[in-house]
Amino acid sequence: MNAQGPAPRRPAVHQLLVNDKALSLMIDAIAKLSHQRRRFATLSDVLLHALEHQTEAESPAISDLGALQSLVGEHKVYVRIPRESARQFAALKHRVGDALPGKSAVREAVCYCCLIILNCKN
Fold this sequence. Notes:
Blueprint: E1 12-18, H1 20-37, H2 43-67, E2 75-81, H3 86-99, H4 106-119
Antiparallel strand pairs: 1-2
Helix pairs in contact: 1-4, 2-4, 3-4
């Protein structure tokens, strides 16, 4: 605690190593959300939007993610998960792991969020 009050809570930053397929998913989701909002979106914006709208596209997104093979690759991507959303993101990550055993890493959960955005009607 400092003179101005409690120290600000910093977001969790994750480094992901993704392949071309996963990188394309991220780029497409960022582009779609940017177009919808009429301003540039970030990967963090994609995650937050997906967490808010996950029930709309959850079923197709999980089957689409299951159809993908490994998402591990050589492209480094950094994603910030705000502390306020960390529990919600962790729950989503566990749901992905339950639905797709062996695919519960942050990388797969991020790609799942991208698929939610791409499968949303809006």
